[in-house]
Amino acid sequence: MNPFENFRIALRAISANKLRSGLTILGIVIGVAAVVALMAVGQGATSGITASVEGMGTNLITVSSGGRSFQRMAGGSATSLLYSDYEAILATVGNEAAVTPYYAGMASVKNGDRTASATLTGVLPNYTRVNAYSLASGRLLTDQDNLQKSRVVVLGATSAEDLFAGLNPLGREIQINGKNFSVVGVLEAKGSSGLTYQDDMVLIPLQTAYEVVFGAQAKSRGKNTVSGIALSAADADQVDLIMANVEFTLRREHSLTLTEDLPFSVSSQSQMLASLTNISGTLTTLLGAIAGISLLVGGIGIMNITLVSVRERTREIGLRKAVGAPKGVILFQFLTETLTLSILGGVLGVLIGWGIAWGVSSAGLITTSVSSEVVILSLGMATVVGLIFGIYPAYQAASLRPIEALKFE
Amino acid sequence: MIETENISKTYRLGDTKVRALRKVNLRVEDGEMLAIVGPSGSGKSTLLAILGCLDVPTKGVYRIDGQEVMRMNERQLAAIRRKKIGFVFQQFNLLPRTSALENVMLPLYYSGVSHRARQAKAMEALERVGLAERAKSHPNQLSGGEQQRVAIARALVNEPAILLADEPTGNLDTHKGAEIVAIFQKLNREEGQTVIYVTHDPFIARHTRRIVSIQDGRIVRDEPVEHPLAAGTPRSDDILGESLSTTVEEDEEAGS
């Protein structure tokens, strides 16, 4: 009895019982396809989020008002982040990092009837560089614009589309709170970070924002405030040191002791990346769990089919023993049969799962990635499930005396 | 030649012990043709299963051509079933969705015969039972009689020393039953094939040359048949021997 001969018997048994074989394969196919497709979506989403967060600027540190305490909401002493804080931070860490403040506020941004949904942001010229934006056309804001409080504006890709619908915006005028501004530049599209749309941008010089648009709204006790300060460290290793220096400077500026809560948040991009990766990692685990359940359901399907066919198969095994088949040869036949079905179903499942992942990608929903680990894992699980449920009943039947197996009801 | 010495078979049915066979002694020479008869539950099928190595006795000695079956391991038993024994079942037990030819080839898979030789031998066996032209048919396309002939071909394909049949005509009408008996007689007369079959039907039993009667697990009568019936003889009461008709009267209602 050579293995090739046994393989032939197994193939014959599989093709002689097409319905049973098909149903067994179906369970494996569904399980494996679900695992491959769901894991591809999960991992694709994770790497997409990671990539776009990294695209927000390398070594980025963000200081924002708001902070960790709820004092402001609770009506306690309101502490605003001031323009002078920016100057103090620049003086402290200006050699190790590029520092840029911004003031963001609500304003009506229109081009005739067209409205942009973006927030209006007053910035210094280095804002675009710190946040890793690049210019698509025209020019960026300059120190000159800032000093002269020029009425000029740079638009994000989406905002330009919203306001001009494909027309070239350069040199044209838009209305911000009813005042005319001239468009001098348009930024390159950057995509979504998964949380914010980074291309909804309307940038004007910071001094223009203070003096022309927001006025008293941007002042706290007569001083200019900022919404946030962004820092880009020259060296990734110095991010933690810079953050410590920034916190120290803020405490000094606002006369806070080390034990008091800092009413500002100082966070690094790597912290944000870590928390986002954490979230999408949880998502992938969840999807994996769902996929695992479908593999389990597939396994139960295989088990059901095996149990349903066990009566016929027990008699078949009894008959094979009666005509002189040794137990080992029968078990080897069932092993070959089950392995063939499992691998066939597994490969079909991988192909279908891959197809679904490819379909999701090409429909533009999410960029999926099929990893070889998932393929190997799901194929392995399908094979193990198939083996356990296929071999165990066969082993039991083959252990019976032929007469018992033949009489099995 | 097969020989049993005081073989007993006891099995449990729930809490009760069933003594299916009690100290049975039987000796069958090569080339014999005999029937084992008895009422249902008498132990005749159990005896046949033991003779066919499909079951093992609880006690006693069973020898096939001098080899003690009780001392054999799994693999040796499988070899005995493969080489020495051909078994025909009442229920035919053909593999469904598998052609007649492939059903007959089944025992040869385990005998290390090449594919071509398997087909040739299986065709030859089908010719011996007169079914060569139905080789490609599946069991569900064959009549009961034809299915049983395929099963006989399967039992013959390894050229066994002994052909055993458990109620081979039990699921067939009189006419088809006569066909099966005719095949057994031909195999025995022309090829010297040893044939043992179990039947509850005294008329079918009278086609052999020896009748062994079993009751309550014991052999109660073992006698030769002086004038075995030819296959196709019409069934009538007066051709049954007086002694036989009294023994088997009671199991007219027995199905198997």
Describe the structure.
- With 409 residues, chain A is of the alpha+beta class.
- Chain A has 12 helices and 14 strands.
- Chain A has helices at residues 3-16, 18-54, 83-93, 127-130, 143-147, 157-164, 206-214, 239-253, 269-322, 327-362, 372-399, 402-406; strands spanning 60-64, 97-105, 109-111, 114-115, 120-123, 135-138, 152-155, 173-176, 179-187, 202-205, 219-220, 223-224, 228-233, 265-268.
- In chain A, strands 1, 2, 3, 4, 5, 6, 7, 8, 9, 10, 13 and 14 form a 12-stranded mixed beta sheet that branches.
- In chain A, helix 2 runs antiparallel to helix 11.
- The radius of gyration of chain A is 33 Å and the shape is elongated.
- Chain B is α/β, with parallel strands linked by helices and 256 residues long.
- Chain B has helices at residues 44-51, 74-83, 100-109, 115-128, 144-156, 174-191, 202-205, 242-248, and strands spanning 2-13, 16-28, 33-37, 59-64, 67-68, 85-88, 162-166, 194-199, 210-215, 218-224.
- In chain B, helix 6 links the parallel strand 7 (162-166) and strand 8 (194-199).
- In chain B, helix 4 (115-128) crosses helix 5.
- The longest helix of chain B is centred in the last third of the chain and has 18 residues, at 174-191.
- Chain B starts with a strand and ends in an 8-residue tail after the last helix.
- The model of chain B is unreliable at 242-256 (pLDDT under 50).
- Classes of the chains: A alpha+beta (409), B alpha/beta (256).
Task: Throw out a few tags for this protein.
heterodimer; A: 409 residues; alpha+beta; twelve-stranded mixed sheet; two-stranded antiparallel ribbon; 14 strands; 55% helix; elongated; B: 256 residues; alpha/beta; six-stranded mixed sheet; four-stranded antiparallel sheet; 10 strands; globular; disordered C terminus
